[in-house]
Amino acid sequence: MTALRARFMPPTMPAAKSSSLLPPVGSPWADRTFKWAALLAALTIAALIVLVGWELYAGSRLAIAKFGASFFVSSKWNPVTNQYGALPFIFGTLVSSLIALAIAVPLGVATALFLTELAPQKIRQPIITLIEMLAAVPSVIFGMWGIFVLVPWLRDHLFIWLKNTLGFLPLFQGPIYGPSMMAGGIVVAIMILPIITSISREILRSVPDLQREAAYALGATRWEVIRIAVLSYARRGLLGAAVLGLGRALGETMAVTMVIGNRPEISASLFAPGYTLASVIANEFTEATSDLYLNALFELGLVLLGVTILVNIAAQVMLKSITGGGTGKVY
Amino acid sequence: MNKLFLTAALGLLTAAGASAQLLINGAGATFPQPIYTKWFDEYAKVDPSVRFNYQGIGSGGGQKQILAETVDFGASDGPMSDENIAKAPRTLWHIPTVAGAVVVTYNVPGNPKLKLDGPTLAAIFLGKITKWDDPAIAGQNKGVALPSQDILVVHRSDGSGTSFIFTDYLSHVSADWKSKVGTNTSVDWPVGLGGKGNAGVAGQVKQSPGALGYVELAYATQNKLPYADMKNAAGNYITPSLGSVTEALATATIPEDFRFSMVNPPGEKAYPIAGTTWLLVYAQQKDPAKGQKLVEFLRWAYSDGEKMAAALDYAPLPASVQQRALARVNSIKF
User: Per the CB < 8 Å rule, is B194 touching A263?
Assistant: First the structure.
C-alpha cells in the first residue's frame, strides 16, 4: 500500500495500519472478510487482463501459424490475396500517439501550473469545469469537427506555412491532402489534454508549501520557485500523468479514423495519411468474411495490447532512471 | 388480500402467455436495413403473431451467424464464397431481395455533369490517370472545363458491400485491376485516402477540391451529391437511377443458385455499377413453426414488399427475377 502511494505522491503522511481504523471491540470476521473481498477485487482485475490477452491469442492462432514473425515486419495488407502485415499500423499508432503527447503534455502541464500557482481563485473553478467538459465530449464529435473544421484549416493554412518555413525537414515534405498523421495526432492531443491536465493538477497541488517557502526564503523568483521547488518535486507524478495520457492515446479509435486518411503506408512526412491499429480493427472487423482475415485482425488486437504493455513498462523504466528512485525533494 | 393478489398475478401471466409472439431473428448487411425494417413494420400489421428482429452487424457477421445457426436468416451484400458455403451444415440458399447502385461522386469547380467509362475509372483508381484534364477524361467530356488539378481518390476504409460492387465492376472492365487488386468488401487500394462509411467518403469528397470517390445511389440522392454518367457495356452513357438498376437486373445472367454479379450487364439502358443484396436461408428449416412464418413473410415481401422499395431509394427486382425468387421461397421445407 505504501509502495503504491510512493510512486506518484510524496510520503508525507504516515502509513495507516488497518487495525487502528477498526473499533477495538467488534466482529472478528469483518477484518478478514474485508481483506479477502479486497484481494478478490484486485485479482479479478488482473484476471480480466490475462483473459483478454488469452482470448486475443486464441482468436489469432491461424494468423500466427501462417505468418509468424513476418507479421511484424510486413507492410502488405491485402484481404483479397490474404496477405497481412502489421508494420504500417504499429508505425501509425506510435507516431500519432507521440505527436499527441508532444502537443498535450507541455500544454497540459502549463495549464496545471497556471491553475495551481498563478490563477486568481475566482477563475480557477470555471477553467477546471471547462477542461472537464472537454473530457465529456464524445470522440465521434471530435472526429466530425476534425473532418469539417480542422482538416480544411490544416490543408489550407498550417501545412502550407509549415512546408514553406520548415520544408527542408523530411517531416514536412510531400503532397498535402488534408487528412494526415499530423491531423490524427492533433485530434488525439485534444482528447488526452483533460486527463493530463487534471492529473498534473492533483500532482502539483500535493507539493507541500514548505518546498515553495524554502525556495522563496533562498531568494528565488516566481519562475525559479516553480522550476526548483514544484516541478522537480513533482517530476515523477507528471511523468505518470504523461504515461496515462499515452495509454489513452494508443487506444483512441473513432476520432482518429475520421481524420488520419486510413492508408496503410509508412512515410517520413507528417502530411502523409496513415493508419492505426485501433482504426483498422474498427473499420474492417464487421465485414471480415474469411477466417484468416478475422484471425489477422485478432492478431492486430493482440499487438495493440502488447504495444500498450511495452510502452507502460518502458515508461516505468524511464521513470526509475530519471528520478533515481527518490522523490526529488529540495531538502 | 393475498389470495386476490395471487389471482391477479396469475391472470396477468396467462394473458401474457396467450399473446406470446413468435420471434424470428436475422442479422447481416447494413445496406438493406432500412427496407427490411420497413417490411417488418408493415408485416406486423398483416400478421401480428410474429415479430422480426434484425441486427445490422455487417455482411461478414450475417454469413457467420447463419452458418452457426444462431439466427433464423442472414443477409449479405456479397455472395458467400465457395469456401464459406462448404461450411454450411445443410443446403443454404441465396435469395435476392432488392438492388442498389454505386455512383461516382466528385468535387470540381462548378460540379458539371461528367461522363466516364469503366477503363478510365479503373485507371484513376489504379493511379495511372492522375490529373483531371487527362485526355481520357477530357475526351469524354467535350465542352466541360476541367481543371489541371491532381485527382484525389477517396475510397471506403471500412469493409462494405458498396466496395464489393465497385471493385467487382472494376475487375470486369479492367484486366489490370483484376490481376493487381481484385474484388472484395475490403481491398489493398493502390492509391487514395479511406473514408469511414458513405458519410466519410462523401464528407471527404465535399471538403477536398479535386476529389473523386464512390457512394451508394440512395446516399447520393438524399444528400444531393453530384455524380457521373457511366458508359455501359452497350456503349451508352447512363445516368444512375432506380430504373436503370432494375434494367441492369433484368438483363444480367442469373444462375440457378442466385449467386451472381450484375455489374456491366449487356442491357441498352442498364446502369453498369449495380448490385443486389441477398437473404441467406436454409432449404430445410429446423423449426416448423418459425419456418412457416418465415416463408409466409417472404411470400408477402415478394408480392407487396417490393412495391415499397422505390420510396426508400432501393431498386425493386424486375418481374422475371421476382418470379424465380418466389419459386425458390416456395420450395423451402419446414
Answer: yes
